[in-house]
DNA sequence: AAGCCGGGGCG
DNA sequence: CGCCCAGGCTT
């Protein structure tokens, strides 16, 4: 892109920003800990969705030392429902690193920030510019969209070459912008989020449209270009809600799969949608935990749905009253006993959280 | 380079 | 129902 056009872009953007920026709780924030927290929360997450989580983390974990000292389960619980739970696990690891190996001092260089777990190029640039005024351009979904449209650049944003192209262009723009790095980064993201939106952008009322290649060519709707399309695999879960008086059994998910370190009921995964009650009774974990001592109270239907990025989860909840005491500790295996009234203390995936909410009446009465 | 990791909002 | 969101890690 010609230098002249780049100047036009940054000057018009700065003028737009002067009258349109979004007032957000973390704007003007000086504390690198809070800036880091907000950026991790906002990864692949809408501002409105992340806001209450940011407030909660600031309240429950006011300093990096508080976060480092917290039990992982407490952090997972605070993160419950936000998704991409590796962010929470990495957040904890990074907090312990800063608190215990750096004496509580947050890194103040791009490279130092980039070393933190869960911090990639975008987040490092965001923290470096917001907290320390360092000249690193952020490249997030908004930036890809704004630059690809304004520059008329059809190079795929999810290719190696495209990432490099847009990163270089973003950096050039930051360096000629009549704004400090942090403000410039805020400006281009606010502009992308509220004006140059994915759908129905405000092109007819846009201060950049005169030089916007996509607008001039009528190709706004075709940019940015992505080349990879995701395919969603279907999975069929059967959750065994085994009630022993006031207690149920749960376990923590481990291993390389979704929802790591979250809790759930004993799970039977079935390769296809149809599974008879007889098949489920004969399979683990039902057969091992309950045998023939269980009476089905209710099979929650229809199956509950949960869409993930690469998977479509279909879950059936089997509520079972089991005669006799819960299994002895030696026979519990990975499962733990929990009183139903204490289930809210554990972090569950959304599909189970929804089930617990919808069935709170049953859970209180029985 | 490709695959994987949540959940919600919107057209 | 498909796309997108203040992306990053693993393989």
UniProtKB/TrEMBL annotation:
InterPro entries hit by this protein: A/G_AdeGlyc_MutY, DNA_glycosylase, HhH-GPD_domain, HhH_base_excis_C, HhH_motif, MIG/MutY, MutY_C, NUDIX_hydrolase-like_dom_sf
CDD domains xref list: ENDO3c, NUDIX_DNA_Glycosylase_C-MutY
HhH-GPD domain mapped to chain residues: 41-194
Domain of life: Bacteria
Cofactors that this protein relies on: [4Fe-4S] cluster
Keywords tagged on the record: 4Fe-4S, DNA damage, DNA repair, Glycosidase, Hydrolase, Iron, Iron-sulfur, Metal-binding
EC number: 3.2.2.31
Pfam families noted in UniProt: HHH, HhH-GPD, NUDIX_4
Coiled coil regions, renumbered to chain: none
Catalytic activity: Hydrolyzes free adenine bases from 7,8-dihydro-8-oxoguanine:adenine mismatched double-stranded DNA, leaving an apurinic site
Record's cofactor remark: Binds 1 [4Fe-4S] cluster.
GO biological process: base-excision repair; mismatch repair
Function: Adenine glycosylase active on G-A mispairs. MutY also corrects error-prone DNA synthesis past GO lesions which are due to the oxidatively damaged form of guanine: 7,8-dihydro-8-oxoguanine (8-oxo-dGTP).
NCBIfam families: mutY
UniProt family annotation: Belongs to the Nth/MutY family.
Record's protein name: Adenine DNA glycosylase
Encoding gene per record: mutY
């Amino acid at each position: 892109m010609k230098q002249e056009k780049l100047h036009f872009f940054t000057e018009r953007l700065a003028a737009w920003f002067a009258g349109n920026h979004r007032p957000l709780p973390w704007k003007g924030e000086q504390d690198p800990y809070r800036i880091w927290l907000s950026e991790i929360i906002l990864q692949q997450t809408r501002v409105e969705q992340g806001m209450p989580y940011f407030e909660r983390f600031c309240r429950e974990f006011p300093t990096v030392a508080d976060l480092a000292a917290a039990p992982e389960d407490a952090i997972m619980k605070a993160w419950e429902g936000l998704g991409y739970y590796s962010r929470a696990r990495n957040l904890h690891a990074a907090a312990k690193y800063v608190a215990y190996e750096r004496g509580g001092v947050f890194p103040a260089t791009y490279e130092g920030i980039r070393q933190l777990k869960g911090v990639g190029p975008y987040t490092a640039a965001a923290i470096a510019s917001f907290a320390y005024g360092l000249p690193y351009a952020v490249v997030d979904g908004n930036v890809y969209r704004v630059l690809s449209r304004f520059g008329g650049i059809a190079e795929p944003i999810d290719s190696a070459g495209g990432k490099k192209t847009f990163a270089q262009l973003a950096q050039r723009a930051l360096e000629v912008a009549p704004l400090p790095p942090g403000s410039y980064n805020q400006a281009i993201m606010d502009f992308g989020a509220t004006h140059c939106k994915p759908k129905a952008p405000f092109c007819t009322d846009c201060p950049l449209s005169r030089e916007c290649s996509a607008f001039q060519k009528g190709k706004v709707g075709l940019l940015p270009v992505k080349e990879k399309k995701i395919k969603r695999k279907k999975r069929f879960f059967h959750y065994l809600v085994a009630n022993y008086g006031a207690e149920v059994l749960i376990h923590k998910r481990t291993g390389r799969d979704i929802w790591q370190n979250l809790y759930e009921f004993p799970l039977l995964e079935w390769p296809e949608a149809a599974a008879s009650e007889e098949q489920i009774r004969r399979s683990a974990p039902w057969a091992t935990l309950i045998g023939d001592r269980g009476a089905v109270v209710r099979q929650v239907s229809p199956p509950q749905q949960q869409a993930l990025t690469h998977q479509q989860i279909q879950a059936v909840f089997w509520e079972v009253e089991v005669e006799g005491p819960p299994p002895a500790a030696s026979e519990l295996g990975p499962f733990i006993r929990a009183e139903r009234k204490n289930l809210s203390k554990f972090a569950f995936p959304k599909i189970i959280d929804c089930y617990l909410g919808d069935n709170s009446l049953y859970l209180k009465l029985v």
